[in-house]
Design goal:
disordered N terminus; mainly beta; WD repeat-containing protein 79; WD40_rpt; 6-stranded mixed β-sheet; WD40/YVTN_repeat-like_dom_sf; Methylamine Dehydrogenase, Chain H; about 45% strand; 35 strands; SWT21/TCAB1_mRNA_Telomere
């Protein structure tokens, strides 16, 4: 018979399989080093193949990235890195090749993996993406073929593109799209028209949802607006004091403490940490360099101990949210990894590996144009960042369009 004094282990106390696989994050960045593991580059600057972020698949077998004017690419994790506990700095750098390539099409606004993706179950291997002038498409991660589409309609009954996309994090059965002045939901199993639509006062340029709060959506907007939407009632609560001075391009919940979420904006050095229960102002403000109009990604480590951010100087910024300095701020580490804008960061779900993506659009102007002709028209794309005259003696910016994998765990470093 069971011992009555022994407490019963409830389902809530038992760690899930995903939790058991999560790495020990106290070892992340412990050696103050990031060891390059593998890289894929788009080296011809005349094609302007800069990358637009990157995201690990939920099972950690591959990385999805978007390349300007070259479609969407999936690269696979090198097989020798499975179940590694430490890496030596003398390990050769692998060259990554695309296992799946969706050819160039319209500009990609946003993309997201199906949260239940498992490479052992091909039917789960898919992602959604939204492109200019197109509905949300569901793509097959094995073949690169289009599976189906989800169409959001405006007040004139015309199909509109979603500017941001999201799967429901609990089971992935619902797709959410952020549109101009609306958020729409779709049933994953019923392609076609939206299931529900919520009207907004601003454009939903980015979306986030916590696993423990499947009826709550946090969204940001190009007009600096940040708000919380209750999908049951349609009620919306906006933050009252928003320190961002430009359009919000990123929001995301902390995995371990899902009452907290983070936001970032274009051309804004501030990263704001918020408590969804008290939206009067940010809990904490961190700093990075974001000097262009790109969507510079942020990411939390699987257990929520670390927050990392891209940086337009090519520097990886990392904050240990569990260790504070003498001023009560999270300890910050900086790693100069790239020569161009670091726009994408993504933690591997079960290993101490970080993926980064780089690049931006560089304008090269003739000397006569660089000197100025009195025309100040600004009609550039939102991802453009720099204009450089082709004059002798003028230092040209370094162009780096790459997807890189880095080891951030225990390292076998030489004494030298």
């Amino acid at each position: 018979p069971p011992n009555d004094e022994t407490p019963m282990e409830t389902e809530e106390q038992k760690p899930t399989a995903a939790e058991r696989l999560r790495p020990a994050e106290c070892d992340f960045f412990r050696d103050r080093a990031c060891i390059e593991l593998a890289r894929s580059s788009w080296d011809r600057p005349e094609f302007k193949h800069y990358l637009q972020g990157c995201r690990w698949s939920p099972d950690g077998t591959c990385v999805l990235t978007v390349v300007n004017d070259d479609g969407m690419h999936i690269v696979e994790l090198p097989t020798d890195l499975y179940d590694k506990e430490a890496i030596g700095e003398d390990r050769p750098v692998d060259v990554l090749t695309s296992a799946v390539h969706v050819k160039r099409g319209a500009h990609v606004y946003d993309y997201a993996w199906y949260p239940g993706m498992n490479s052992l179950q091909p039917e789960t291997c898919c992602w959604i993406a939204s492109r200019r002038h197109e509905p949300i498409h569901l793509w097959d991660a094995f073949t690169g073929q289009l599976r189906c589409s989800y169409k959001g309609y405006d007040q004139f009954d015309e199909v509109n593109p979603a500017l941001s996309v999201l799967f429901s994090p609990d089971d992935g059965s619902t797709i959410y799209g952020g549109y101009v002045k609306s958020i729409k939901s779709f049933d994953l199993n019923i392609p076609g028209r939206e299931k529900t639509s919520w009207s907004l006062k601003s454009t939903a340029s980015c979306l986030a949802m916590a696993f423990s709060m499947p009826q709550t959506i946090v969204y940001g907007s190009w007009n600096r607006h940040i708000a919380v939407l209750d999908t049951r009632s349609g009620e919306q609560i906006a933050v009252s004091k928003n320190p961002h001075n430009a359009g919000v391009t990123w929001v995301g919940f902390e995995p371990d403490r899902e009452e907290l979420f983070v936001s970032g904006a274009r051309k804004d050095s501030k990263i704001c940490l918020w408590d969804v229960r008290h939206l009067t102002g940010p809990v904490r403000v961190l700093q990075r360099t974001c000097a262009n109009n790109q969507r510079v990604h942020l990411d939390f480590s699987p257990r929520g101990q670390w927050l990392v951010s891209g940086d337009t100087r090519g520097i990886l910024q990392a904050w240990n949210l569990r260790e504070l300095d003498s001023e009560g701020c999270p300890k910050q580490l900086s790693f100069p990894l790239h020569h161009d804008s670091l726009n994408g960061v993504s933690f591997h779900p079960t290993a101490p590996i970080l993926a980064t993506s780089t690049g931006q659009e560089h304008f090269t102007l003739p000397a006569s144009t660089a000197e100025g002709d009195g025309d100040d028209d600004d009609d550039t794309d939102q991802s453009t960042t720099s204009a450089t005259p082709t004059q002798p003696g003028v230092k040209q910016p370094k162009i780096e369009n790459s997807l890189t994998l880095w080891w951030i765990g225990k390292a076998l470093l030489s004494d030298g």
